[in-house]
Amino acid sequence: MAADDRFTEDFREAREEEVLGTISEVVTGPVSDWSRDFSHLEPEWSANPYPIQDDLRQRCPIAHTGRFGGAWLPTRYADVAAIAYDTERFSSRAIILSNFRPPRELAPIGGAPPISSDPPFHRDARKLLLPAFTKDAVNRQEPATRAFCHSLIDAFGGQDVVDAARDYAQHIPVRVIADMLGFPPQDGPQFRVFVEDLLEGINLPPDERIERVSRLFDYLLVQVHDHIDNPRDDLTSYLLNVELYGQKLAPDHVVGTMALLLIAGIDTTWSAIGASLWHLAKTPADRERLAAEPALLPTAMEEFLRAYAPVTMARLVKEDMQWRGVDMKADDWILLSFPAANRDPAQFDRAAEVVIDRRVNRHAAFGLGIHRCVGSHLARMELRAALEAWLERIGDFSLADPSAVTWSAGQIRGPRTLPLRIR
Amino acid sequence: MKVHIDPGRCQGHGRCYDLADELFGADDEGYGQVLGDGTVPPGTEQDARLAVLNCPEQAIELLEEG
Is the pTM of this model over 0.80? Predict the structure, then answer.
């Protein structure tokens, strides 16, 4: 077998000659009017986006901002769904809204396939990943995940107050995805930095942002070389060996998909676990009911996913067009807020309430259409293991200091500081 | 009564086989499949309706037999 020489030179160097995309002016600071100047990176949004979204849905259901070089924010379920389904007019070549638009030539593959891919390439790239993420495949990791959750609770020792975001929720997806990719478990703290760099560093100066993102790719290349030298049964070796159209994957496809799995696997689930515990900590009636009726956990979990959906995606408008009454320009961003869709009263009864025994819950927390979260079964397994272990071990808990709770900024929203009194 | 999944709409969310595993299963890629010929046995009608109502893609149909 010929040696794998796809990574002998840094594949990024071959890209230097390519078109570089466009950079827009960084605009920060308080929002004057959310209907024409929105920014999901401002503290008011991070702290509590729902009143803003509810207000916009009533008075300006497709809001606009001149920030980020121009972006639209639909808040009705029907509009979010229509855009998610319309891959002809909305491209996924960038899914993190920022001040940098990658060149059009990057489509249909994008930087992190398949999430950044458009049809028809998307389907083929996605097909490579699906078998590893079926419900049966991920459930094989449930016993180990559950044991890991218990070990985190053991480590609380005799503390009365613990940070459930930092010392519990965060570690669960990090451990699971490191195992799946075959990365050293002790590298977990670095992953958190990568996640923050990529998802929260949106308004940094472009040079600094590029520098930070390249640290992630440096790390991934180290893992690639380790797996070329020592192949094993994990997703990294799988991606290095799998073939598409009769050939092994291009090096940037391998590394882009590794980046996707690492980043998308972590703070999303971390956020879902944290938001669920935050809700239960501040809502004694729901906490007590769930303790008395553990069989309600499946509907409660879906309701937490609906009401506190962690993930917002982005799209780029392909061509100038009139769309449902607004004048979209080519390369305008769409901030595709599944959280806003999930709170649309036109789609959900009692949309603003958390109803833990909601039996009919057609929420969009994992997206809609061809880009349905490939890790949704994994996320549900982790959320179930994390909540069951917590509820089994810590029956009574409350917010130790509501004003100390902090939330992440940007498209993935969840608690990042969550001090809970546990005894 | 029979259930039917539209493969053109199903995206593999798996709500049907979460909620009604006596009526639905998953294929090797996680897409939903009806078990057998999709006939809903007596006593499972409520599960069938729940699967229909919880499918995020509205990919499941309940066919009442005349």
Answer: yes
